[in-house]
Amino acid sequence: MDSLQDYLRERADAGLIAWRCQLEAAERFGLSIAEVEAVILDNGLLPARYQRNRQMISVEQQRRLFASKVAVVGAGGLGGYILEQLARLGVGTLVVIDNDVFEENNLNRQLLSAPRHLGRAKVEIAAERIAEINPAVTLEPRQVLLDGSNGARLLAGVSCVVDAVDNVSARLEIEEVCEKLQLPLVHGAIAGWYGHVTTVLPGDRTLKKIYRHWQGGKGIEAQLGNPSFTPALAASLQVSEVCKILLRQGRLLRHRQLVFNVFDMEIDEIEF
């Protein structure tokens, strides 16, 4: 019987392996979709789903994304869009950490929410969604709050952490955990028409500077609410930062806070 490598090379079209061929290879050789995808990329080929990536991301870089593990803390407004985009980008392993369930007030903006999902765990729905849109991606659901006592265990082996929580105290705790574990952190926050994004590397302590005047309680999100569009915008900016971190290219939002105001269509930058 042909080897998997020969099987794939014979069926490649302009360096691309169609989804149908990937499925057939998994069945023929008794492998998972993820295992077949790794072999495709190791042989300099590209799953056809990523063909629109290759003008900006090489096959070697696509392989690096697939070999990466990213943790997303929060699976709500920001987190749902972040998980979706990371999976479609081709990041191979995602850890999603959230202890919440879907409620009706989530339906206006949270990508993973739907009336049929009310009362179900957000991480459970996230796992189902990612398996549907990109079965080559492994999603590890963790229905728990991340804190100093469990951070090392929950974030074991990850390359990057994405902050998608909705309160200041949790953000500051995530920054502390990432500092101890020497992990890069991509932070985003939204409120009404506004939002901001920044990237924090170990030692920067940028969130402590951003929230230096916080005196407890929920942030401004509780006052301004959140529509459907600001989570998508902030999440897209966060995912672009994650991509640059994993590929080690581009200029990061380090020591800089990108602040957007879509009511007046203004974008500002604050340096730290």
Automatic annotation (TrEMBL):
GO terms for molecular function: nucleotidyltransferase activity; tRNA threonylcarbamoyladenosine dehydratase; ubiquitin-like modifier activating enzyme activity. Gene3D superfamilies: NAD(P)-binding Rossmann-like Domain. GO terms for biological process: cyclic threonylcarbamoyladenosine biosynthetic process. SUPFAM superfamilies: Activating enzymes of the ubiquitin-like proteins. The keyword Nucleotidyltransferase applies. It comes from the Bacteria. InterPro entries: ThiF/MoeB/HesA, ThiF_NAD_FAD-bd, Ubiquitin-activating_enz. Pfam families: ThiF (PF00899). PANTHER family: TRNA THREONYLCARBAMOYLADENOSINE DEHYDRATASE (PTHR43267). This is Molybdopterin/thiamine biosynthesis adenylyltransferase. It comes from Geothermobacter ehrlichii.
